[in-house]
């Protein structure tokens, strides 16, 4: 029995001893756990504080960066203001000295205005008559003209420098760069060549003038030919058609076919300016020049193809004339009976065959040229509008004598609309581009011209442009002339007045149009 209780009590006593030993450890563990919880809470508080501090630091950095940027901006503004102040002070100082020069220039201008009539008379006389003479005779002529001006009591500058008066430094520098000799006689000749009204004849045994002209007009595609050149007529026709400069050499072999050009024997037919060259009428009108310009800018493929075809046609026709000449020469050189000489017969057959091939090629190029012309027709209304606008500008001097506009002024506007038009940058469709060019041509022309007109004349000019615009639109639509007139009447008078005008009792006359009957009535 004792053993039984012993087996039970002994383990309990051992367990109690173990509990007694473990109890401090448990208490220590609990204390450590409580301390860890406190520390974790403190760590969380510290992390929160750190995050708040980091946000504050970032905010302070941003504020600091803004302050630094503002400080730099203030420094830059300060430097700019200081620079402006320095420039202003320098400008004031320089203008104070410039004032004296401007006052002197104003006095000089008054003196120039006092002698402008005499100066212009001397300069224009020199331009018209001085080119034929050498330097000494030119000076003698100037002296003689000066005596006549004094006798007529016309004031002029005694020290008038013709070169400086009739040209500017930029032109003279460009002429020197284009191989013009740097002497007064050559510069005077260059001035005459630039300002001529009649086509100049140049005596140039040294070839210096030829070199200068080829360099000077290189950008305008100047062509050089000779009266002895078989292709002279074709080159002349091309220059007249496309408005390019032409330098003709060997004038001692002068061809009378040039007479209509030198005499400016032109005639106007239906808005076109024509000149007869041999048996052909060459179009010199502004319409052709504008059509060439718009094709070159908008359809360079068509323009190049047309130029190549014209060149090929000229070459083919020249070759055909040579073959015909060779054929006649072969017949003329034949000796004895032609039928007995196989060599001549073979030569004649070869020439005839080659002439037939060339004639066939001419026909082929004519057919292709017709196709190219059909593509070019869509730009004809634009060219006609440009031509009509120039002739309108040319007649504005009837409204006021100060309204003087040159052909170059109109061509500059046309080239500006074609080559410097911002509205065309993102447009690829050719029809849309044509519409934009047409609209901008009218707008730019009106803006540039109207700013120099009296206010009361601006509406007159605008109405003239509207008439041209409506007429061009009517032509593009293929409408009758009467519809254009009706549309213009609506624009001028309003719908009701235009209707009354159309209902007027106008008699009909057999063989006359309604518009002609209206004119008769």
UniProtKB/TrEMBL annotation:
<dbReference type="InterPro" id="IPR027417">
    <property type="entry name" value="P-loop_NTPase"/>
</dbReference>
<feature type="domain" description="Dynein heavy chain coiled coil stalk">
    <location>
        <begin position="15"/>
        <end position="145"/>
    </location>
</feature>
<dbReference type="GO" id="GO:0045505">
    <property type="term" value="F:dynein intermediate chain binding"/>
</dbReference>
<protein>
    <recommendedName>
        <fullName>Dynein heavy chain ATP-binding dynein motor region domain-containing protein</fullName>
    </recommendedName>
</protein>
<feature type="domain" description="Dynein heavy chain ATP-binding dynein motor region">
    <location>
        <begin position="174"/>
        <end position="285"/>
    </location>
</feature>
<dbReference type="InterPro" id="IPR026983">
    <property type="entry name" value="DHC"/>
</dbReference>
<dbReference type="GO" id="GO:0005858">
    <property type="term" value="C:axonemal dynein complex"/>
</dbReference>
<dbReference type="GO" id="GO:0007018">
    <property type="term" value="P:microtubule-based movement"/>
</dbReference>
<dbReference type="InterPro" id="IPR024743">
    <property type="entry name" value="Dynein_HC_stalk"/>
</dbReference>
<dbReference type="GO" id="GO:0051959">
    <property type="term" value="F:dynein light intermediate chain binding"/>
</dbReference>
<feature type="coiled-coil region">
    <location>
        <begin position="15"/>
        <end position="70"/>
    </location>
</feature>
<dbReference type="Pfam" id="PF12777">
    <property type="entry name" value="MT"/>
</dbReference>
<dbReference type="InterPro" id="IPR035706">
    <property type="entry name" value="AAA_9"/>
</dbReference>
<dbReference type="Pfam" id="PF12781">
    <property type="entry name" value="AAA_9"/>
</dbReference>
<keyword id="KW-0175">Coiled coil</keyword>
């Amino acid at each position: 029995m004792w053993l039984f209780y012993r087996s039970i009590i002994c383990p309990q006593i051992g367990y109690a001893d173990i509990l007694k030993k473990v109890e401090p450890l448990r208490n220590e563990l609990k204390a450590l756990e409580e301390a860890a919880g406190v520390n974790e809470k403190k760590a969380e508080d510290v992390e929160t504080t750190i995050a708040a501090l980091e946000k504050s630091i970032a905010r302070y950095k941003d504020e600091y960066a803004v302050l630094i940027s503002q400080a730099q901006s203030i420094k830059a503004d300060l430097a700019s203001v200081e620079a402006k102040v320095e420039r202003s002070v320098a400008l004031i100082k320089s203008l104070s000295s410039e004032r004296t020069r401007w006052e002197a220039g104003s006095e000089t201008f008054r003196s120039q205005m006092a002698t402008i009539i005499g100066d212009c008379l001397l300069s224009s006389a020199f331009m018209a008559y001085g080119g034929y003479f050498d330097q000494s005779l030119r000076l003698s002529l100037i002296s003689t003209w000066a005596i006549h001006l004094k006798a007529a009591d016309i004031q002029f500058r005694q020290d008038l420098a013709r070169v400086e008066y009739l040209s500017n430094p930029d032109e003279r520098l460009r002429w020197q760069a284009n191989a013009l000799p740097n002497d007064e006689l050559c510069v005077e000749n260059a001035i005459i060549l630039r300002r001529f009204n009649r086509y100049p004849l140049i005596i140039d045994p040294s070839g210096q003038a030829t070199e200068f002209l080829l360099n000077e007009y290189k950008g305008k595609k100047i062509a050089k030919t000779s009266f002895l050149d078989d292709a002279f007529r074709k080159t002349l026709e091309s220059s007249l058609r496309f408005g390019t400069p032409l330098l003709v050499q060997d004038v001692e072999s002068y061809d009378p076919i040039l007479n209509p050009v030198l005499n400016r024997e032109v005639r106007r037919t239906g808005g076109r300016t024509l000149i007869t060259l041999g048996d052909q009428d060459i179009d010199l009108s502004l319409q052709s020049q504008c059509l060439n310009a718009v094709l070159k800018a908008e359809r360079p493929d068509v323009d190049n193809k047309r130029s190549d075809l014209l060149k090929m046609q000229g070459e083919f026709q020249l070759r055909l004339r040579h073959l015909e000449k060779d054929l006649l020469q072969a017949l003329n050189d034949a000796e004895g009976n032609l039928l007995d000489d196989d060599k001549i017969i073979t030569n004649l057959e070869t020439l005839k065959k080659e002439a037939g091939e060339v004639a066939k090629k001419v026909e082929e190029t004519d057919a292709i040229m017709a196709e190219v012309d059909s593509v070019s027709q869509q730009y004809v209304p634009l060219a006609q509008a440009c031509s009509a606008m120039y002739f309108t500008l040319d007649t504005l001097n009837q409204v006021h004598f100060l309204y003087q506009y040159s052909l170059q002024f109109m061509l500059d506007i046309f080239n500006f609309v074609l080559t410097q038009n911002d509205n065309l940058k993102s447009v690829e469709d050719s029809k849309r581009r044509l519409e934009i060019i047409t609209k901008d041509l009218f707008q730019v022309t009106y803006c540039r011209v109207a700013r120099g007109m009296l206010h009361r004349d601006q509406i007159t000019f605008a109405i003239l442009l509207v008439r041209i615009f409506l007429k061009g639109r009517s032509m593009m639509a293929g409408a009758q002339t009467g519809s254009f007139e009706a549309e213009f009447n609506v624009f001028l008078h309003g719908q009701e007045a235009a209707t009354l005008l159309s209902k007027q009792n106008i008699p009909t006359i057999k063989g006359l149009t309604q518009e002609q009957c209206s004119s008769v009535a």
